[in-house]
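Q: What residues go here?
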């Protein structure tokens, strides 16, 4: 009988735990589950936070969290899943950054932790106990890692940059 590989078992636990948390966060945004606002509430929140267009931002954040989290938990398309979830969390970090680091003060500690964990899984790979392994890594090729992470970084830079520029515009009625 073959012995369980501790590294692969550890990656499975990390993937499933992180993925489940991300799915729950995304489900709050997309479906209103677990006390979330659903698309309507998340759209209003995105608009208040300065993301435009707010509904597209709400859907993208929800899909990045729920979709990236589900794929991470399954260990399927792991580089893209890790990059998508990390990108969604980078947007959340930008929102929470003015409150400082620690979560108890509204800071970015928690989304940063989720983002770094998702990114680390995406970079490390899913391990042997995954759908990527079961499908001979069709969606987990070495070239997919830089493509997924560069694509996510470019998207985050564009979205967060657009938000920052919009928030920097001074309302002419208040001057």
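A:
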């Amino acid at each position: 009988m073959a012995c369980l590989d501790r590294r692969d078992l550890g990656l499975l636990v990390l993937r499933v735990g992180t993925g489940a948390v991300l799915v729950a966060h995304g489900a709050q945004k997309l479906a209103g589950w677990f006390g979330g606002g659903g698309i309507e509430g998340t759209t209003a929140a995105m608009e208040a936070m300065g993301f435009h267009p707010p509904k597209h931002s709400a859907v993208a954040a929800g899909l990045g969290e729920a979709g990236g989290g589900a794929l991470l938990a399954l260990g399927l398309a792991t580089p893209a899943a890790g990059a998508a979830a990390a990108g969604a969390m980078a947007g959340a970090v930008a929102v929470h950054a003015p409150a400082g680091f620690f979560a108890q003060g509204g800071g970015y500690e928690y989304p940063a932790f989720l983002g770094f964990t998702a990114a680390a899984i995406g970079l490390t790979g899913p391990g042997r106990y995954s759908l990527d392994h079961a499908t001979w890594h069709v969606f987990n090729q070495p070239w997919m890692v830089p493509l997924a992470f560069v694509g996510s970084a470019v998207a985050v830079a564009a979205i967060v940059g657009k938000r920052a520029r919009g928030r920097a515009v001074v309302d002419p009625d208040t001057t």
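A: Context that may help when evaluating the design: The helical segments are 6-31, 38-49, 54-74, 78-96, 109-124, 131-134, 144-168. The chain has a mean pLDDT of 95.
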